[in-house]
Specification:
The chain is built from 3 helices and no strands. The chain has about 80 residues and is mostly helical. It is rod-shaped, with a radius of gyration of 30 Å.
Length: about 80
């Protein structure tokens, strides 16, 4: 039964190839459409990178605050030991 299914899929694929029409997904976009899509992709990627930078800066600030808290806690413990 598996070979029949594979044969049907192959037949479907070969029919598409014999048709000669690559269809919208396989055809090349016009150069202006391709340029616009390239610009859109660059804008989205730039936005992503900027968001990533902001997120990492926030993580660094959080870690800095956490380190400061730990340092204060250590100082407090050292002060308590001396007393």
């Amino acid at each position: 039964m598996e070979t029949e299914t594979q044969d049907e899929e192959t037949l479907t694929t070969s029919e598409i190839v014999e048709d000669g029409d690559p269809g919208p997904s396989m055809g090349r976009p016009s150069s202006s459409l391709g340029d616009k899509q390239g610009e859109d992709i660059k804008k989205v990627y730039k936005t992503y990178l900027l968001q990533e930078i902001r997120a990492r800066q926030q993580e660094m600030e959080y870690r800095k605050l956490k380190m400061r808290k730990l340092e204060l806690e250590i100082r407090k413990l050292e002060k308590d030991e001396k007393q």
